[in-house]
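A protein record pairs a chain with a discrete description of its three-dimensional fold. The following entry can be read in just this way:
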Amino acid sequence: MYTVQKNPAALRSQELICRAVCSLMAQMPFAEITVTRICQEAGVGRKTFYRHYERKEDVVEQMIAYLRDEYERELLLVPLEEAVRYHFAFLARQIEFLKLMHSAGQIALVNARFSELQPKVMPKWSDDEREDAYRSAVVVAGTEAIVRKWAERGFRESVEELVQMHQAALGGG
């Protein structure tokens, strides 16, 4: 759990800690990163860290939450027919962060947090509520699978290629 802050000094501390975690993730496996090392890298005390976070995983959760909030604000302005393209384009703009998350074994967490927003943009497929629920579940799972495979392949495919594969695999979902 992390604490959402409004105080500029507290926000600055959180920013330093987030940057430190990213820097360390680029240097070593996430499992080897300690709170002590994060604090050293960020130039903050352990007390400051624990004022904002309970554990290092909470820093990752906060970074994903910030991106997800930005994504949600923009996604709600995107026409439904452009939602898939927007999804992959947004993630492509965050490619360095995604690479860090993938190397830390956290791409599934990124997928899960972003997928929580899908009900807000999912089309109504039919009048059958059950069919609607299952079809939406398949689209969400398929989108997550494409992002996971994209990460496994080193993020080589372009946004347009991802959109085309999504349409081919999910029938335009």
User: Anything to note?
Assistant: The CA atoms of residues 78 and 86 lie 8 Å apart. Residues 129-152 form the longest helix (24 residues). DSSP finds ten helices and no strands in the chain.
